[in-house]
Amino acid sequence: MKLISYDYYEGRYFGYITYRKNSYAVDPRIYFETSKIKNLIGFAVVAPRKIAKQTAEVERIFLKKPFRYFDTMNEAIDRTNSLIIKNRYLD
Q1: Are 46 and 17 in contact (CB under 8 A)?
Q2: How many degrees, rounded to 5, is the angle at CA 40 between CA 29 and CA 21?
Q3: How far apart are CA 87 and CA 13, in angstroms?
């Protein structure tokens, strides 16, 4: 199975940022497969609402990658960029 991430990020590290403006549930089983994407270096949830942060805490259990939530998109972008730079130097 070829993942869309390979089409756009093959040979490069990337982070995933999701903006949870509205509250919704994600099937946590998806994170088992997501954890296998080698060049995915982190997962960030921008969750300005408390309920979205609580949902993200549960999701964190299932992902075997760095996972954090933030109040603002700028915080998430800064953290993701720093992870990309850090991982670039580990190669």
Answers
A1: yes
A2: 65
A3: 8
Tokens describing residue 91: 């190669």
Whole-angstrom distance, CA of residue 26 vs CA of residue 52: 11
pLDDT in tens, 28-61: 888 888 898 889 999 999 988 777 777 788 888 8
**Sign, Cα dihedral of 22, 52, 24, 32:** positive
Q: What residues are paired with 17 via a beta bridge?
A: 44
3-state secondary structure at position 71: coil
Write down the pTM of the prediction. Answer: 0.81
Residues 6+ apart with CB under 8 A from 20: 45, 46, 47, 48, 49, 52, 55, 56
Nearest to 3 by CA among 39, 42, 56: 39
DSSP state of 26: -
